[in-house]
Amino acid sequence: MALRPVHVIMKALDAPAVGRFWAEALGWSAHSPGVTTYVGPPGGLVWPHPVAIGVDVVPVPDPKTPAKNRVHLDLATTSAEHQAELVARLLALGATPADVGQGEVPWTVLADPEGNEFCVLEPREIYLDTGPIAALVVDCAEPRLMARFWGGALDWTVREVSDDHAVLRSAQNVGPYLEFLRTPGVKTVPDRVHLDLLPYPGDDKAAEVERLRALGAADLDVGQGDVPWTCLTDPEGHEFCVLAPS
């Protein structure tokens, strides 16, 4: 039994507009089959995608707080020219430069039109085969703790773990990485960005949720009411949802 990440939830005041931004940023397509705007690889809506992790933009009534998101996307580039072109294109689409205390670094930190921070990385060989999203990065206090929990929760493989950094990727070596970065500070506001997980066909969602609780997950009430998904937090309080298989 294990779960697979199927998309990143991103909350927004104007979900269609933020969805269009991310579709243009990633070179993907935006779909609005209901209240959310789903951004996935071109070629028609495929969900769950066998390789990519999509972005599902969900409308909410409250704007992002000034606090830095504890979860963000890193975007991959293939050359210095590609990085410069992508940064220029993103700025033209409505992104803004962001200062999160990064200092002098080879990557560029930006924020989307509603202030969600993300990074445009300099070319790195490790990310050449990930697609446009290199990694989903989670700020945390204890990467080893996060690696134990998420390594047990997902059908992904823990590739690297140290006191400062933990890295997971799908066992098939495809798609983006999930990375946990030791970061000063603590979580003070609900996550604006989080993962949704899905059981495999034939697996029991309730049993999966119980397994996650045994690993250290906690129940979360965000006023969701009677819904087919289950809201939880990991051992450091990062929110995530387990979806019902369909």
Keywords:
alpha+beta, 246 residues, 4 helices, eight-stranded mixed beta sheet, globular
Q: What does this entry look like structurally?
A:
With 246 residues, the chain is of the alpha+beta class. The protein has helices at residues 15-26, 80-93, 143-153, 205-215; strands at residues 3-12, 29-31, 37-40, 54-59, 71-75, 96-97, 108-111, 117-120, 133-140, 156-161, 165-170, 177-182, 193-199, 218-219, 230-233, 239-242. The strands form 2 sheets. Strands 2-3-4-1-13-16-15-14 form an 8-stranded mixed beta sheet, covered by helices on one side. It has an 8-stranded mixed beta sheet with strand order 6-7-8-5-9-12-11-10, covered by helices on one side. The longest helix has 14 residues, at 80-93. It is globular. The two termini are 17 Å apart. The mean pLDDT is 95.
Quick recap:
With 246 residues, the protein is an alpha+beta fold.
β-strand percent reads 25-35%
Total helices: the number is 4
Structural class by secondary-structure content? alpha+beta
The outline comes out as: globular
Total number of beta strands: 16
Chain-averaged pLDDT: 95
Order of strands across the main sheet: 2-3-4-1-13-16-15-14
What is the distance, rounded to the nearest whole angstrom, between the alpha carbons of the first and last residues?
17 Å
Largest sheet properties = 8 strands, mixed
Low-confidence spans: pLDDT under 50, at least 5 residues? none
